[in-house]
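As promised in the previous annual report, we have extended the structural survey to additional targets. Below is the entry for PAS domain-containing protein.
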Amino acid sequence: MSSPAFPLHRPAPRTPSSTARTRSVDRRAAGPPTGRYRFDATTGSWWWSPEMRRLLGLDSAVEPCTETLLDAQHPDDVARVRDALGAACADGRTFALETRVLHPTRGQRAVVLLGEPVHGEGGAVRGVEGVCADVTGARPADPVAGHAEALQTEIAQLRTAMASRAVIEQAKGILMLLTHCGEQTAFDLLAHMSSHTHRKVRDVAAALTGSAAGHARLPGDLAAILRDACPPARPMH
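The corresponding structure token record, generated without further manual editing, is:
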């Protein structure tokens, strides 16, 4: 059975130029970027990082939408991208695709598009988030030899990066609940715990989420910092 068609969500036009598919050269991009994106299936809205825009060769005035993403793909890859996004939203399927982006100034680029469904309450899929990486420079001199291995390595690296971000986001949520702070303060606290215990941020985050889930005790040095950061309990009346 074919995957359901992914809806085209056009942004509301702000000016005539914002609806056109305009592109520009970003001379600040020193190398192939790795972009991040999020799609909210409930509102049909997209968010793209600046690196994602550079990878696609899009001007900052262009509003992110499904049509623009598909328009940047090689015509032979459009259906694959649409079907993968549609299946992620409808059935919660993860995907990893190698596609071709037609960059306006750099020509055809080989990219890996990785997507993970985002689940809301009750397990329903409320969107998709992921990364898109330009792997053109990683292509072997022999277009056949080593191609599959290089692609699998790239995908594994992208999945690791996404897993790290996921556990950091979970740890931030835990700290926000414990300390009644905002998102940026929670991340600053994670960074503080990392620098004072000589652990990587993702390792601190993993320790916090593991402790919150009851899988392991929080190491003593992290627990001490957390005790200092938590507000005193209110007296019971």
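The two ends are 61 Å apart (CA to CA). Helices lie at 50-56, 66-71, 78-91, 147-179, 183-197, 201-212, 220-229. These points will be discussed at the next consortium meeting with the crystallography subgroup.
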